[in-house]
Amino acid sequence: MSESYHIPVLFEPTLEGLITDISGVYIDVTFGGGGHSRGILERLSDEGQLIAFDQDPDVLTHLPDDDRFTLIQANFRYFSRFLRVHQVSEVDGIIADLGVSSYQFDQPERGFTHRQNANLDMRMSQQGDKTAATILNGYSEKALWDIFGQYGEIRNARTLAAKITAERKARSIQTVDDLMTILDQVMIGDRHRYLSQVFQALRIEVNEELESLKDLLTQSLRVLKPGGRLVVLSYHSLEDRLVKHFMKSGTFTGELIKDDFGKITRPFQVITKKPIVADADEIRQNPRSSSAKLRIAVKK
């Protein structure tokens, strides 16, 4: 695999925040290009172990050749179930890099980007029938409005949803160019931002990303040993808000939980009071790191 395949975001602070025991067991729930996984393996002793998850079959072409490494081809929302199968009851650290890998963006046939024409797929894996095209052609106007408003935070989500449902009566929306023809008619504000928000909203819905993130966070509490680290890189406010609230309170709303005696219970000690972000040098080398936010917490 070439170095250009995947540039790990916030590489050093991520691994420094994750690894506390070089002989421990760690989970990389988003193997992707493998950059963070390789960094973990370089830091672990011979007794250390790394289990990685990824549902994208393309990752099979660039796996580390290392006896300490195991890949499980599955969505990370099921990771605790698979750990039980592998007889792993608790781990020292979990890392989740929630961004779409550079490799996936750079494959036009996957349909993740508005910069190149392709079929509107956007599936992280090739399993399942739900694609961006099936959403655009099959969801009701109200459902589209909700998706673009909630997941894309698009200001004219209602107008966009109405335009899509009107246009698809004449012609099915199957490609990036088909969608761009519609977007050019309703776009407001900064063009790049608007397009990115639309494609983000569709990708989140196709892959059920927020639901998967909630499942991951909930399971992390069961799997991490006391003192174990949860390290999460997020790339938009919807993800970051869930991570921030959960690390602070153990809930997704930020509401604090009290025990029977009225004492507030916090399952984590938050290490990053404010998220770690990329500096100017990293953003110059890897522009996709500009939106990354790194949060780290320790299970009590």
Explain this structure to me?
The protein has 300 residues and is of the alpha/beta class. It has 2 domains: 3-103 and 209-299, Rossmann fold, CATH 3.40.50; 110-207, Putative methyltransferase TM0872, insert domain (DNA polymerase, domain 1). It is 39% helix and 15% strand. It contains 12 helices and 9 strands. The chain has helices spanning 11-18, 35-43, 79-85, 102-105, 132-138, 141-150, 157-167, 176-186, 191-207, 209-223, 237-249, 280-285, and strands at 25-28, 49-53, 69-72, 91-97, 224-234, 257-258, 264-265, 268-270, 293-299. The strands form 2 sheets. Strands 3-2-1-4-5-9-8 form a 7-stranded mixed beta sheet, with helices on both faces. A two-stranded antiparallel sheet has the order 6-7. Helix 2 links the parallel strand 1 and strand 2. The protein starts with 10 loop residues before the first helix and ends with a strand. The model is unreliable at 1-5 (pLDDT under 50).
